[in-house]
Amino acid sequence: MRIFASLSIAVLALATFAGQSQTAVGQNASAQVALTPPMGWNSWNFFAGKVSDKDIRAAADQLVATGMKDAGYVYVNIDDTWEGERDANGVLHTNSKFPDMKALADYVHSKGLKIGIYSSPGPKTCAGFEASYNHEEQDAKLYAEWGIDYLKYDACSFIEQVMEKQAPNDKAEQMRMMRAAYAKMDKALKATGRPIVYSFCQYGMDAVWEWGPSAGGNLWRTTGDISPHWDRMYVILNEQAGLEKYAGPGHWNDPDMLEVGNGKLTLAENRLHFSMWAMLAAPLLAGNDLPNMKPEIKAILTNRDVIAIDQDPLGKQGSRAYSEGEVEVWTRHLAHGAMAIAVINAGDNRYSTHPFHLDLRKLGLAGEQTGKDLWTGKTVRLNQNEPLELASHDVLLVRVEKPVIASK
Ligand code: GLA
User: Fold this and answer.
1) Cβ distance 187 to 234 under 8 Å?
2) Which residues of the chain have pLDDT under 50?
3) Is 167 exposed, middle or buried (0-12, 13-18, 19+ CB in 10 A)?
């Protein structure tokens, strides 16, 4: 515990340094939050429209009780369906599922956690509730008064009701409107003076990774919605290859929230999902039913070695080094010259006595590499053409502290 605590302080110090250099190269002040990818829990993937005040409190309690908070999960994020109606002054009220948002925020804060909320730049949210169109400043002020620490801003009806209506058939103008809408809420959030993590959710449209930071985004969804199915998760993973250069301290690619523990994902698939989101420096927002979490799911979500890959202070997203048939090899460069290597088997039914052979040269490495298998905790040695047997949809995740780099 103590080792971990001093490690986190060191990580924080380094991340702060990295964040400062980010600001120096022209990022806005929001680079001071989310210096490592945000970690927490979000209500949507499990509760969807049913979430209530009680579920949020239970999630906060469980983050503490399960040790997830100690492992780094701090944001408790309320997704869509908390919203009620606006009053005569335009002030938004909660619906009956959330009787007192300020009291709920106080409760979450009393646990040493932070709280997030959800809205849309359109008139309505994706689930058809009241959203922030033409009320941006008023809503941002309200969030700050409640003590909100994180906003997910989901395009939803802004596309049909605003962009397409006001600029029919003019894609360029529509996209300009989208950027302006995201920048407008950024300004409103900053005007509150409260540090609020700003999460864009517009499904990766218009190469958001290129303009997200200048519109104030701390993270931006790069894809449509995830679901708890291998196929969907794997498609999303593949869509991330090539986006690595856009991520860094204060501004992250978001391949969507975690489905670990949801649906019918196998243990191998849960491990692979978690490993690869860590390789991607993705936000780690658990989306499962925390009060009923199975021990093996908790073990995955609280694997500190894997979390340390995600939260590495260098903030350099991993990339796909190469693929060969159904096997893919990804690498991530970590602080102090360390490296993470992930080998995944995407094949459905592979059963073979003939192993996959790892080509270290394609990872820029030469000679024997000694590392730690982050799922077994054992030391592994990887040599050129290392024979690897991986079960279907499983992952080998290795951290190499001192990789032997190939000479050019
Ligand atoms: C969209 C988002 C989801 C979720 C729902 C809520 O689909 O992409 O993550 O927030 O809206 O309605």
Assistant:
1) no
2) 1-31
3) middle
Strand 339-345 to 319-324 pairing? unpaired
The whole-number pLDDT of residue 348 equals 87
CA–CA distance, 178 with 154 (Å, rounded to integer)? 11
Q: What's the CA dihedral at 347, 349, 354, 357 to 10 degrees?
A: 10
Q: Using most ligand atoms within 8 A of CB, pick from 42, 77, 80 the residue to mutate for ligand 1.
A: 80
List of residues 6+ apart from 249 with CB closer than 8 A? 15, 18, 19, 22, 31, 34, 35, 36, 313, 315
Kindly report the protein residue whose alpha carbon is nearest to atom 3 of ligand 1: 225
pLDDT for 350 equals 58
159: helix, coil or strand? helix
Q: What is the 3-state secondary structure (H, E, C) of 56-80?
A: HHHHHHHHHHCCHHHHCCCEEECCC
Q: Which two tokens stand for residue 369?
A: 């590499």
d(CA 394, CA 187): 44
| DSSP bridge pairs for 324 | 327
Residue 126 CB less than 6 A away from ligand 1: yes
Model's pTM, two decimal places? 0.92
Give the phi and the psi of residue 385 in degrees, each rounded to 5: 65, 25
Per DSSP, helices labelled H in 336-401 are: none
For residue 349, the CA-to-ligand 1 centroid distance in Å is 33
Q: Ligand 1 mean position to 225 CA, how many Å?
A: 7
* CB 80 less than 6 A from any atom of ligand 1: yes
Structure tokens at 142: 């309200």
Phi-psi region of 368 (alpha: psi -120 to 50; beta: other; left: phi over 0): beta
Q: pLDDT digits over 191-223, tens only?
A: 999 999 999 999 999 999 999 999 999 999 999
| Angle subtended by helix axes 136-146 and 171-191, to nearest 10 | 40
The predicted-structure confidence for 368-378, as pLDDT tens digits, reads as follows 999 999 999 99
Decide: 259 in ligand 1 pocket, CB within 6 A.
no
**Residue listed under structure tokens 């309690």:** 61
388 lines ligand 1 (CB under 6 A): no
Separation between Cα atoms, residue 163 and residue 147, nearest integer Å: 31
Catalytic residue list: 154, 225
Ligand 1 proximity of 159 Cβ (cutoff 6 Å)? no
